Amino acid sequence: MHPHTAASVEAVFREERGLLLASLVRRFGDLDLAEEVTSEALEAALTRWPVDGVPARPGAWLLTTARRKAVDRLRRDSAYAARLAILQVDADRAGPAAPADTGGGLPDDRLQMFFTCAHPALPAEDRIALTLRCLAGLTTPEVARAFLVPPATMAQRIVRAKKKIREARIPFRVPGPDELPARLSGVLQVVYSVFTEGYAASSGPQLQRLDLAEEALRLARILRRLLPAEREVAGLLALMLLVHARRHARTGPGGDLVLLEDQDRGLWDRDMIEEGAALVVTALTGGPPGPYGVQAAIAALHDEAADFASTDWPQIIALYDVLLSLAPSPIAALNRAAAVAMRDGPEAGLALLDALAGEPRLRGHHPYQAARAELLQRLGRLPEAAAAYREALEVAGTEPERAHLRRRLRETETPGT
């Protein structure tokens, strides 16, 4: 296959996979069947497109091909057909969901399936993992990174969720408007995890996957229109806007990583920052704050500072204290320690980082080791800094991150460079 055609197939599949799966699950009510015929449609594309050319509407071509293969499978496989018939009966007994073209429905197939997979019969982490893997298009290692667990653990979790769906005969149906709020938290976590993978890819040659980040923003905007009274929806959208506003400054001309303190703030998207800051006010007004609203407020303080030196670190630390009281997590604790280092000096920050050393979820999280290495280097403890940089290099996923860590490691090995 010509490399250009292979790249086109890969790009189309990456963009269309989640929507394709969502459409097929909505049509046939079976996730395993949808995944199998989606893979078969991709194989057909890899065979046909080099000969016939990439179609004008590649997503429609894949969907039509997958539907035909699903129908053929059901005609051949009586067991599949019987199982789908049972699921359809269960769905009919559950009652009709709000149609997608009404004001109470969800005007996006993928978002519909996010809410569908957020079924209360599944454990919270399992349903979020399943949605990220199957419908958001993240790989199993990428989903594992979002949960700070090994890929093998995540693979087992996804298999368990699928088994639960089969055994409990959970119907794939769009929940009605009255069911949406109860499932919202899981959906927000899925959307944010998609954005996080776009903002900081877990592997590959590039630091960012802007297509994923922008897809997450699109879904968050839909949620904001559908649920305008939900302040955490406003908070999530604000957080993503305020972070995504820095996208053009986060890498240099060759794709190299540029740290926040070194970024050209003239490259930041001021319209996006203004929109995000206004949403922060909405998210924090009218009741106790939620985790996304607090994180958005932290991002706003970074974006509104004239330069890195004038960042309001005391206020950021206070907001991290609020965040940790609402949603304790090792990542929030890591970020708070970094902020304390900026306010009180590297020794104070390092003490907080060392207190997190026993946290298992940080062992494979390279920003933790990189942060320790940075503070050790600032304290002049160069052999320890070098060791921490090496540990970070072992688990860093993208080449820009690895290149940055290699440069810092050389500085510790050859002082004065």
Automatic annotation (TrEMBL):
Keywords: Sigma factor, Transcription, Transcription regulation. It comes from the Bacteria. Residues 117-165 form the RNA polymerase sigma factor 70 region 4 type domain. One of its GO terms (biological process) is DNA-templated transcription initiation. InterPro entries: DUF6596, RNA_pol_sigma70_r2, RNA_pol_sigma70_r4_t2, RNA_pol_sigma_r2, RNA_pol_sigma_r3/r4-like, TPR-like_helical_dom_sf, WH-like_DNA-bd_sf. Residues 183-283 form the DUF6596 domain. GO terms for molecular function: DNA binding; sigma factor activity. Residues 13-78 form the RNA polymerase sigma-70 region domain. Gene3D superfamilies: 1.10.1740.10, Tetratricopeptide repeat domain, Winged helix-like DNA-binding domain superfamily/Winged helix DNA-binding domain. Belongs to the sigma-70 factor family. ECF subfamily. PANTHER family: BLL6612 PROTEIN, BLL6612 PROTEIN-RELATED. This is RNA polymerase subunit sigma-24. It comes from Sinosporangium siamense. The lineage of its organism: Bacteria, Bacillati, Actinomycetota, Actinomycetes, Streptosporangiales.
